[in-house]
Amino acid sequence: MTITSTKIWLSSPHIGEGEQRYVKEAFDTNWVAPLGPNVNGFEASIESYLDNDVHVAALSSGTAAIHLGLMLLGVSNGDEVICQSFTFSASANPICYLGAKPIFVDSEKDTWNISPFLLKKAIEDRIARGKKPKAIIAVHLYGMPYKVNEVKAVGEQYGIPVLEDSAEALGSTYAGVKCGSFGDIGVLSFNGNKIITTSGGGALVAKNKKYKDKAVYLATQARDNAPHYQHSEVGYNYRMSNVLAGIGRGQMEVLDDRVAARRSNFKYYKQELGHISEIEFLEEMPEMYCNRWLTCILTPSVQFRERIRLALQEVDIESRPLWKPMHLQPAFENCDYYVDGTSEDLFDRGLCLPSGSNLQMGDLDRVIEVIKIAMTK
Ligand SMILES: *Cc1c(COP(=O)(O)O)cnc(C)c1O
Question: Where are the active-site residues found (predicted)?
Answer without folding.
Answer: 194 (proton acceptor)
